[in-house]
Protein 1
Amino acid sequence: MAEVIRMPLLSDTMKEGVIAEWHKKVGDSVKSDDVLADVETDKATMEVMPFVSGTLLYIGVEKGKAAKVNDIIAIIGKPGEDYQSLLQSAPAAAPAGNEPAAAPAPAPATAPAAPQAEAPKAAAPAEIPAGVTVVRMPLLSDTMTEGKIVTWNKKEGDVVKSDDVLAEVETDKATMEVMGYADGTLLHIGVPAGSAAKVNDIIAIVGKPGTDISGILNAPAPAAANTAPTNPAPAAAASPATAPATTPQAAAPSAQDGDDRIKISPLARKIAQDKGIDLRALHGSGDGGRIVKRDLDNYRPQQAAATAPAAATGTAAATVSVAGQESFTDTPLSQMRKVIAKRLSESMYTAPHFYLKISVIMDKAMEARKQINDLGGQKVSFNDFIIKACAMALRKHPEVNSSWMGDFIRANHHISIGSAIAVEEGLIVPVIKFADQLSLTQIASSASVLYDKARNKKLQPQEFSGNTFTISNLGMMGIDEFTAIINPPDSCILAVGNIVPTPVVENNNVVVRQILKLTLSCDHRVVDGAVGARFLQTLKTYIENPVTMLA
């Protein structure tokens, strides 16, 4: 049976999307994970995947034209299949249709719709009762295979609105608020809090009270019909289960009088209502003084605050090890830690690593940095210098900017550099896009914003994906040198150590120079030793002579 692909709902403010480019034409064979089209929204340009396989029978919106959310943009089926009945019976745009909505590819999306699996005959639209909406686990990043339900904000039997936050989901990258985008009663919760669900698994069903949903639950495969395009928004902060609470900023603006005038996230408002907390007593630590979940987590009435030290002392005493007695604490893996373990293990044991080391004299770079920072404005770090120098060197050595794709090597014509940063839950890699086209101060500004977002778990998917080269810097922690594991699909990663005063011999004289040690990890399937060595030589030249990066 032919499948209708609709314009997905990609953000809470999106009304329509413009087809920026079609990557397939009528008659082309399409796989479920092919990029069907690029869609420009009010937030960003995103790649749309159909999540069904077959032949592209129909394109409903020309390149450059707009389609409203839930309008038909394409139909996929068997070659020669009659699809006219689908067009004639197509309903007007609605929150959820009888066919699967197109889902955006995870890498560049700001807030992807839930991916839809190909519907088997047992889960045909006719078997789903009218007015029932299935909410599935959305695909939120290119590395996500499952999401963990941190908490449910609604329980079975509750009346829900389309903009209510149903649950908080922990992924490998962030904690996200998931909305169902359907009005009705919460008939079924498919995954209890604390448990994980694979992408596209049913996590909830919304409909009219008393509706028989046994046919949906007993279906042998995930149903594609009447599935709500869940549109998650990044949660304001990590959940208490995954990160310790932090003290709100002292300078955060206080909430204003009147509920309607207070800036607050839907999740934070719900928690405040449940706990009976006066919003005017809170100080928002989010953007523009917005009250977010962590502000509720950190809130303590005066009485509770007075007794907190005693409680903390008691807790600490309970965890002290007894002399001569073995003890341990088991910590459940977060989604981020699971993905770090999986991806880096795969990289280490599938990509044949080899390592190249070089020492760089940083005296001129240190002088240049001081002069730039003395001018005022955006401060520049040594890491910013290295990002800029790597981008310039990658221009001259495109082989290092390539990716291993299994049965072919992809030469990337753009340069986007990931800069690894440690967060409470593990490691994340914000990406400075088109770094070779940015000035040093532009790189510094972009990196500063991305690092701040990463620490506050506010990174959007397009901000931590799409890297073509990665840098890992432990120099600020006093590490002289180390080797890093390649971050797929990159073919190389640069490990940056500490700058150390070191005696060196120049013109038969011993002088002290500021030495930085760099280690390049290379995937030998893509990059040979000589290629990596030439890249490091060029990189060394740029860093030791910063003025050359202005050419």
Note: The two ends are 59 Å apart (CA to CA).
Protein 2
Amino acid sequence: MVVQQRERELRRGPPRRPGWSLRNYMALFMGVLLTVAVVAGFAVRWMAEGDARQSASADAGYAAQRAANQLKAGFDAISALSTPLAADPGVAQLFVDPSKCGIGYAPVAPFGTGHIDIVGLDGTVVCSSRKGVSSGTFPLYQGQSWLQAPQPTVVAPVVDPASGNQVVVISYPISGQGALVWFLDLAPLGPKLAAELGSGVHQLEFLVTSSDGETVILRSIDPARSVGRNINGQISTSSSAGQPDLNGTQRIYGRSTFDPGGWRVYVGADEAAALSAADQLSNRGLGIIAGGVAIMLMVTSVVYRRISEPVRRLSLVIRGATAGDAVKAVGSTGAAEVTNLAWDFDRLMTTVKNELADRLTREQKALISERNYRLLFEGHPQPMWLYDVKTLCFLKVNDAAIQRYGYSREEFLAMKITDIRPPQDVPKFLELMSAPQPHFDRTGPWRLLLKDGSTNQVLMTSHTTTFDDHEARFVLAEDLTESQQLELELHQSQARAEANAELSKAKDEMVSMVSHEMRTPLASIVGFAELLVTRKVTPEQRNDYLGIMLQEGRRLTALINDFLDLRRIEGGHITMRFAPADIKALIKRSVALIADPTGTPIQVRVPEDMPLVRIDGDSIFRVVANLLSNAHKYSPNGGAIVVGAGVVADMVEVYVQDEGLGIPPDALSHVFRRFFRVDNPDRSGIKGTGLGLSICKNIVEAHGGTISVRSDGLGKGSLFAFTIPLARDVSQMGEVLVVEDDSGFAHLLQAELTGLGVSSIWAADAETAERLMIKKKARAVVLDLLLPGLQGEAFLHRLRSKHGAGIPVVVVTLKDLDPAATLLLHKAGVTAILRKGPGMAETAANMIAKSLTAEQVVIG
């Protein structure tokens, strides 16, 4: 039936889905291809023109530089020749006897034609390179500015009176008599530069202007009409785009300058000639693109026909879902991938039909198996249930469990597995659940609670399973038989006997160790007491003996106190009062207690944003102080001592590191044992009870943390670290903030407030109280003035400056206050000042409750 239903669904055809056909995708592909071709054509055209302009600009710039270099070389050659000639005394003699004139003109660098004259100060020609010209009295160059110049001068363009040509005048003064003057024709200079440096591709124009760009000095095109023309700065190289030359032809200019004179050398490439080559290049590129597009369109059309039609026929066959027809429908006209797809479809259909038939058979068997399982589960005479291993909630129970334990099915399904266990057994059960569970397990005996409050001892057989997508555990609870109970009692008796034997052995060892540790100080005290009684001693010896007795007595007292503290901690007789605390402030107080002002300072490395921890402040202070004291004692040669803290997962790790005597590897696993001390000569003079680290270990473990030690060996220092829990947000809330270092009085005050229906939170120091006020502002404060670290008066001042005067504050303290101090407290807005003593906790609680009630009335 399942197979037939599947075939009917296939024949109905594919559901309508938003999407494009293959034809639409092919049209899109062709459109994109044509668009890309057009964009590529424009890009080729644009890049070809850009390259042509860049090439023309580069060619023009290069030619301009070469032209400037040639002109400068000519000027340099003329200067090198003329400067010593003008200073030659023989030239000066020509003004006295012109008949000795013998100068001639030869082309210099680019300057092909011109003449050289020696001109007197009155403008008359004394000597000339022109043929047939003799000295005369006619002042041909009278009044010329270059004739009076004291330095070599270049002037252009100038009309030469002798030849009528436009020339450049280069004069070199002859002291007190005249000047040596070069008259160089400008008209042939431009065509000559074009012939030597021009490019046939870009049809270059050479143009030289004055330094201000206003006057044409030479030009390669139409020089006769252009030289001396005023162009008013018409030529510019500020843009790579073409601009018209003096004849209106669009050109791309390059520029250079040279001395003397600061002439500007412009070389312009014909823009039309440059772009003509670009047009040819871009046309070839466009032709290639057009040919490629045509080929792509033809190939795409063929591919489309070879794919779309076979795919359409294959789609029709798939909708018909008839095995073996797909390959015949596609035939040999389709692409190889389409043919392979048809083969795959035929094989898939065959496989699907076989799997559907197998699945139907398995489903039928599963239904029968499930029916049998339900009959077995529901009808089994022993209590059974399933529970979620993550939430511990009941998922299913059988009738036997309902009948045996008295709960209804609805009550069972609303409970957790821990609800049917005695409260004292729950921690052990949760501890076992936190460890990896075996797939199959049989444990017991366990006590289970019946609805009437009685208990029942059972053996539990369980295994892991999956139930309604839950990771579950199946449990079979068997009541203990009479023989099993007798066997259990026998095992328990044996276990108690073994435990008593171990306890007796441990006590004997403890008494032996304590006796041994006490004998040494007692022997010293008794020995020196006998000396004082039986012998005459000098006053100095008496003082020495009494000092030793006092030291040993204190050592014995410390040993007894540490031993008693350890016994109370191990026996659970010391009450830990946990509260949020600022670990950084606690560490700083420990450092202040242990640090030696004259020795190496202890470094504190605690982040500013360290979160609050949940600890018994006095106990953890004792741990930190003990570790710092040990670090100081076991660093006789100095060295850095570092104490720090950081967050690790959901705990805070505190560490103390030193560079002292270190610990050998074989002793690392024993350092937290009672009375253990490293047996090494380097620490024989260091006193201690051997109980401090054991006390630290028990305190840390009572907080749910761990303590560890690391050392690389003797002489390489050590690092002690322990973890304590972070304070949960719910433990940092309360209407009243109790700032009190006496945990007993704080606990009593909190009990009084709770009795009045007021919630509270306790801070053992002012630093923690400040952090708690930032977390959640309390409505009232009970404050002790005598606090560790920051004192109560300073905390009150900060409280008022940060949170205003609206928070009621009741001071309960043993501190003796004079009238002036009392007045200052009242000015700070203190509601009342109470002397700590019997009944003061109740009085303070009542005053706070009244203040909060009055505040609510005002708000209402």
Note: The chain has a mean pLDDT of 80.
